[in-house]
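User: quick one, fold this
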Amino acid sequence: KHDSAATDDYIGGADRFVKLFRSQSHILRCKQVVAEVVLSRMPDTAKHVERYMDEAMALEDVLCEKLQNLPCSDFEGLLHPVFQEDEWKLVLMGGVLGVFIGCLQWKFLGA
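Assistant:
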């Protein structure tokens, strides 16, 4: 869709002359070739854009700075939803380990 519009924009006012010498099917094939070339070069281009965005926005540095300045209670509030789903597993495991260690102490240290 966009590659077709971009090709039309590139041809611009010369479209009448192009249509005199080339058929509509040839022009459509040219648009398809343009689209294929653009898509084949996209991964390499995206790497450059990603590197530029990292440098320009310095997102990692900004996040590090903001997290370091975050109060402990706010940081805990940030992490809590992540672990909340599995919190019951942690409580259960703590209980099981507590009973196990208690039994070992009772057996080897005596009651």
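User: anything notable?
Assistant: Helices lie at 2-11, 15-21, 24-57, 59-68, 72-84, 87-109.
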